[in-house]
Specification:
Blueprint (H helix, E strand, L loop, with lengths): L3 E4 L22 H6 L13 E6 L7 H14 L3 E6 L16 H13 L5
Parallel strand pairs: 1-2, 2-3
């Protein structure tokens, strides 16, 4: 079983901003933006997903991760969101707020090895 962890990504491009890579605005090409949005493809067969997002992210709003979790739950896709207070858009596994290595390791152990965190 593949298990994924994602840090700071836009998942709902219809509620993000116009993307230069599409060469059209959301208004001009809504289907293109929908097809480019990971939430479009969520279903119960997806692997478990760990999302980690900072509240001080000004590049990708926390609402993007919150939307992903909401839709994942609606579709039956396993997903967990860990919100890091005051963390910016980019941070590593050891931001000043707390060491995230135990969280990430426990998530992978649970879903790849079948072990629950102690």
């Amino acid at each position: 079983m593949l298990t994924l962890a994602a840090f700071l990504c836009a998942v709902d491009l219809m509620n993000y901003h116009d993307m230069k890579m599409f060469a059209k605005t959301r208004e001009e090409a809504p289907e293109l933006y929908k097809k480019g949005s990971p939430i479009t493809y969520l279903d119960a067969k997806d692997p478990p997903m760990l999302l980690v997002h900072g509240t001080a992210d000004v590049t990708v709003p926390l609402s993007q991760s919150e939307t992903y979790v909401r839709i994942a739950k609606e579709k039956g896709a396993p997903c967990v969101l860990e919100v890091i207070p005051d963390a910016p858009h980019t941070f590593d596994l050891q931001p000043k707020q707390r060491d995230l290595r135990p969280l990430v390791t426990a998530f992978f152990d649970q879903h790849l090895k079948g072990k629950l965190a102690k």
